Amino acid sequence: MMKKMVLRRIAIGFATLVVVSIIVFLMTSVLPGDVAQIILGQSATPETLAALRKELGMDQPGYVRYFQWLGNMATGDLGISKAGGATIESLISGRLGNTMVMSGLVAAISIPISIALGLWAAMHPGALLDRIVTFGTLSLISVPEFFIATILVLILAVELHWLPATTYLTGDETFLEFFKAMAMPLITLVIVVSAQMIRMTRAGILNVMSSPYIEMAILKGVPRRRIILRHAFFNAIGPIVNVIALNLAYLVSGVVVVETIFSYPGLAKLMIDGVQTRDLPLVQACAMIFCGAYVILILMADVASIMSNPRLRNPK
Amino acid sequence: MTENPELAEESSMPEKDILAEIDAVDELPTAPPKRRVRLSWLGKASAAIVALWLVICLIGPSIAPFHEMDIDGDDGFMGYHTNEYGTFYLGTDYLGRDTLSRVIYGARNTIGISLASTLLAYLIGITLGILAAVKGGWIDMGISRVNDAILSLPTIMLGLIAIAWLGSSIPVLVGTASIIYASSVFRIARALGQDIMVQDFVEAAKARGEGVWWVIRSEVLPNAAMPLATDFGLRLVFVVLFISSLSFLGLGVQPPAADWGSMVRENLQGLPYGSYAAIWPALAIATFTIPINLIVDDISAKSGGSLASKMV
């Protein structure tokens, strides 16, 4: 039962990735004016155009090119950037690492904070702290990431001079310098991601709290704190793991804005530069990486919630 | 509905033939009784702020002290000052334009584009969603699969792909945002429609021989209106965040037009010199989106719904 559901979910995830690749591929082939024309520019003659089209494989039908492109991507050949002619692998390789370090640190900081605060708020619903947390997180998820970043720059960099407003990574900084350079984008993303995670953790716990066995425990006279930590929390683990994976997926969109604000040399910054110069091969590659990561994280969230359901795990 | 005198009179006359009775039932008001929404003081204050922004949207140009593109200030990134052209209450931006006037003009672009996109998203989403719920079969299957594909991607990625492909202009922004957010409207409208389609009163209407469109217009839509209205608020906030994030990245509304997202971007460099020109438009966004979410939260808390949990 569970195996079947998980396999089915993985199959859907794979199908989504195929659809994504088709969308991303179509993006370039439906483009007004073709790549050969763009590369040759003014110096294009019908002969050179035809030759270059043949060289690029553009005389082949669309579906053949799609499979070639997909094959190249799978083997790590992401093509050549239109701007400067560097290979896209070389542009991406360093940037991808930076983005992953950032995302990993954000996850490591925000997950414990969010679960603790979410639990605390759920333990005292309606209390002052709960109201502050609920109102605060609602406000934080209602504003764009760049709002939070701008206010942080104003407070931490401009008024207090604690941290630099932009990130310069040269690769040979000491640990403290590295941390200082990373701090601003890191804090922004932790706030953005935690706000959502706290709300969802709190809602998940309160949802479990309305089930009959919790009512039984309340009637038995078990203190609320104990009910949450001993009874509710373990049944809310499934939904909470789900929340974590979902929020790491939301990190994808947060990263795009935050890297740009702080000029953090990550993959998202590279992609935005690509969109601005309309460097489509670069955008294609970055979009595939981001969408792939997103689809896989959502997939993990769904699998986690299937696995955490004891009824599905131990079928009768 | 139960207080309807016509119905009471009708049922007290048993000799009336059955056809006349059906006619009488047909004449009953088809809309459900209006549900009164009572807001808390926080909700009321929020509603007032949102209303104020909408008014500014409408009459903005006539109350703004300067034109959005006039460079009248003494210098860029100045604080409060007065010169021969007038008073600059919130100072000037990086070019020396009045920040207050640009925030007022920006309301039109940011709220206007977002509102247009959300309305379009609703038009597309509700039409397709209810169509899928009513018709079912392969129409439902087809639309739902495409919809799942859109929903399974990060919205900002879809936006970036669309802009890399088509370039940035207001029609591209509105089109992209409305298609992206139509997918979540579709899912809700379809679920609501399916719920309502199996209700007894819809069965009764169908049995009476009413057509599909009559059922949609008179039975499905009025019953789905309230949940959809609350969802509209949430969706509008998402669209504002989406559009202003793209503008902030320099890929949305293009200068010199005033837009809150791009205003933050262009004035960010003034922040280290103590200029608040980037802070005001950022606050404008916050004072529009936070109150909307507070109203939605208020309504869904009152109606006991789980709409708040959708706010993820």
How large is the count of helical segments of chain B? 11
Tell me which protein chains meet in the greatest interface and how many residues each side has: A-B, 51 and 44 residues
Overall tally of structural domains of chain B = 1
Determine the mean pLDDT of chain A.
Answer: 79
What's the total count of β strands of chain A? 0
CATH topology of chain B: MetI-like fold
- Contiguous uncertain segments of 5+ residues of chain A: none
Helix segment tally of chain A:
13
What CATH architecture of chain B do you see? Orthogonal Bundle
Give the spatial strand order of the biggest sheet of chain B.
1-2
Q: Tell me, what's the shape of chain B?
A: elongated
Largest sheet of chain B: 2 strands, antiparallel
Order of helices and strands of chain A: HHHHHHHHHHHHH
Question: How much helical structure, as a percent, in the residues of chain B?
Answer: 55-70%
Report the helical percentage of chain A: over 70%
Q: Beta-strand percentage of chain B?
A: under 5%
Measured between the Cα atoms of the first and last residue of chain A, the distance is: 10 Å
User: In terms of structural class, how would the helical and strand content of chain A be classed?
Assistant: mainly alpha
Outline of chain A: flat
Mean pLDDT across every amino acid position of chain B: 78
For the sheet with most strands of chain A, the description reads: none
